């Protein structure tokens, strides 16, 4: 429920703008007050009249409108909300936000705000995949901007792929997660997720089969319980949840740096399947066959152990540090030893033998190992494991 919450909805110029009218309606149904802002391009897709009729309020349109400025200046407009939502957020709006531009009302409000910002990107899939957009996405994630979507599917331009704006109810869920007063409100929780990729040379890398499903589910539930979640993810095959701060990394060393930059945190959950080793030397050019039949021998160096580093950091250590242990035999004995070795508070241990179908699958059967001993949980969906773990974290922190 969003009763009493004030949401500023900035509608960008894209075909998905028509869905933002439904978004406004859904937010108001839940009790939110919605102030709409239209970019000039948005007015090509939806009219100011329909927007203000659905919002039940005046729609703001132009930076240099003296009447608007007299009623409510753009600085006040940017602060007079609990959350700013940009939907659809075009590639151009993302670029403006990442670059700190302020050349129209929407970008000025976004630069002047002291509130959290949630964007629902929508654009052609090539525009979404373009390195410039991906760079901007990473910058915005680092700035604490929350991202919902885009989804994959048929696009108005006739192509199929990632770029469709998230559905209004998915955006509403992101808004609720960002504004909700759950038991973890005011708490900051760090979650790592996904595999890491360790380059062998500029075109090859070492990876593992982690999909990021469990870490993503944990982050989603923690956020739904009201926590501010920083989600540091390797190249996972599932999309990150909405409503969290996403920091994308590739290697273990980048993941450690991102984790350290995100601290302090009240709790940290290390669900990532971090590569234990990387190449001992950086290879600046592609390794080639030389025709002699000789094969290269790769020399590895050990990666930093992020969980152990954070568990043993002394001052600034999160109050609760949770690790995962993927084992194939003697799960409890190995995981108990791992908890002691790494210095974390809890270990969520699971059996990832191929016959369990757990790694990369949708179910998990875990044992929670803490100072109190080992507690077996029945096999259940990764979402339910996440819900149970997040509830335990909430209990431990409150
Ligand atoms: O040692 P092992 O990889 O089995 O430990 C698993 C736990 O340690 C997971 O929580 C994982 O996220 C974390 N880990 C880490 N940094 C590493 C290796 C593992 O944070 N380099």
Concise description?
The chain has 398 residues and is of the alpha/beta class. The protein has helices at residues 17-29, 48-55, 66-71, 74-79, 91-99, 105-112, 125-129, 131-142, 168-179, 213-224, 252-262, 306-311, 331-342, 382-397, and strands spanning 6-11, 33-38, 83-89, 116-121, 146-147, 151-154, 160-164, 188-193, 198-199, 205-206, 228-233, 245-248, 267-270, 277-279, 300-302, 320-327, 346-351, 363-364, 366-370, 373-376, 380-381.
Would you mind describing this structure in some detail?
The chain has 398 residues and is α/β, with parallel strands linked by helices. It has two domains: 6-179, Flavin prenyltransferase-like (Rossmann fold), CATH 3.40.50.1950; 188-397, 3-Layer(aba) Sandwich (Rossmann fold). Helices cover 34% and strands 23% of the residues. It has 14 helices and 21 strands. The strands form six sheets. Strands 12-11-8-13-16-17-19-20 form an eight-stranded mixed beta sheet, sandwiched between helices. The protein has a five-stranded parallel beta sheet with strand order 2-1-3-4-5, with helices on both faces. A two-stranded antiparallel ribbon has the order 6-7. Helix 1 (17-29) packs parallel to helix 2, helix 5 packs across helix 8 (131-142) and helix 10 (213-224) packs across helix 14. It is globular, with a radius of gyration of 23 Å. The structure holds cytidine-5'-monophosphate (C5P).
């Amino acid at each position: 429920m969003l009763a009493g919450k004030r949401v500023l909805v900035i509608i960008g110029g894209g075909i998905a703008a028509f869905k933002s009218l439904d978004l406004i309606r859904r937010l108001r149904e839940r009790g939110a007050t919605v102030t709409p802002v239209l970019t000039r391009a948005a007015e090509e897709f939806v009219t100011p009249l329909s927007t203000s009729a659905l919002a039940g309020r005046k729609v703001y349109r132009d930076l240099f409108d003296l009447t608007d400025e007299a009623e409510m200046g753009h600085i006040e407009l940017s602060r007079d909300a609990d959350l700013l939502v940009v939907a659809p957020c075009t590639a151009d709006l993302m670029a403006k936000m990442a670059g700190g531009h302020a050349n129209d009302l929407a970008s000025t409000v976004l630069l002047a705000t002291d509130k959290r910002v949630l964007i629902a990107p929508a654009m052609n899939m090539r525009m979404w995949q373009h390195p410039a957009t991906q760079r901007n996405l990473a910058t915005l994630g680092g700035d604490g901007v929350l991202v919902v979507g885009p989804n994959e599917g048929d696009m108005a331009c006739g192509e199929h792929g990632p770029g469709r704006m998230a559905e209004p109810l998915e955006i509403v869920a992101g808004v609720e997660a960002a504004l909700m007063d759950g038991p973890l409100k005011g708490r900051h929780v760090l979650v790592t997720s996904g595999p890491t990729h360790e380059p062998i040379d500029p075109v090859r890398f070492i990876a593992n089969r982690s999909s990021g499903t469990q870490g993503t589910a944990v982050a989603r539930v923690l956020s739904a319980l009201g926590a501010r979640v920083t989600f540091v993810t390797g190249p996972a095959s599932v999309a990150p949840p909405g409503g969290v701060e996403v920091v994308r990394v590739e290697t273990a060393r980048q993941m450690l740096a991102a984790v350290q930059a995100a601290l302090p945190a009240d709790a940290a959950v290390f669900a990532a399947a971090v590569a234990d080793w990387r190449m001992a030397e950086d290879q600046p050019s592609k390794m080639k066959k030389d025709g002699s039949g000789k094969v290269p021998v790769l020399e590895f160096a050990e990666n930093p152990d992020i969980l152990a580093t954070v568990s043993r950091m002394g001052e600034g250590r999160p109050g609760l540090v949770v690790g995962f242990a993927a084992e194939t035999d003697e799960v409890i004995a190995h995981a108990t030893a791992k908890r002691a070795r790494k210095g974390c508070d809890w270990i969520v241990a699971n059996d990832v033998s191929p016959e369990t179908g757990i790694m990369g699958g949708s179910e998990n059967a875990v044992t929670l190992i803490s100072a109190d001993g080992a507690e077996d949980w029945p096999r259940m969906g990764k979402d339910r494991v996440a819900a149970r773990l997040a509830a335990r974290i909430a209990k431990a922190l409150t």
